Amino acid sequence: MAETISWVPKRLNAAPVVFRGMTGKEVATLTLAGLGVFTPVGIVAALIMGVIAMAPTVAFLGAGLTLFFGGTIMRRLRRGRPTSLMYRQLQFYLACKGFSSAEKLITQTARYSIRRNPILKPDLRRQ
């Protein structure tokens, strides 16, 4: 009879490292961000120089540089921390600024007490 593993290590379910310490989702996000930022720069460069091929060239070159340097920055930010910490920090930042639903996160600071309030405590000696 074959025995089954009662526990599964976390790294078996984790996304594999694809490039410069980033997962596939992070690589795609940085690449799209680089394309989004550098496409207008490429269009302006194409209009100034009069060469239409300059727009995609600058866009893809910028996306590659974003991926290269962004991978280094992300690796430094994530070193020794849980994998979901950066996503939670971004989610918290957006929730504090009002761009995300704040119902999932605690965004207000307050003091809580678990002791009983002496004003509401009934006086048992008078009974």
Derived from helix and strand composition plus strand pairing, the structural class reads: mainly alpha
Count of DSSP-assigned helices: 4
Report the major sheet: none
Number-wise, the strands total 0
What is the straight-line distance between the termini? 70 Å
- Which percent bin holds the helix content? 40-55%
Order of helices and strands: HHHH
Determine the mean pLDDT. 81
Provide the β-strand percentage band: under 5%
Low-confidence stretches: none
Estimate the global geometry from the Cα principal axes.
flat
What's the Cα radius of gyration?
Answer: 26 Å
Structural overview:
It is a single chain. The protein is mainly alpha-helical. Helices cover 54% and strands 0% of the residues. It has four helices and no strands. It has helices at residues 10-13, 24-49, 54-78, 85-97. Helix 2 (24-49) runs antiparallel to helix 3 (54-78). It starts with 9 loop residues before the first helix and ends in a 30-residue tail after the last helix.
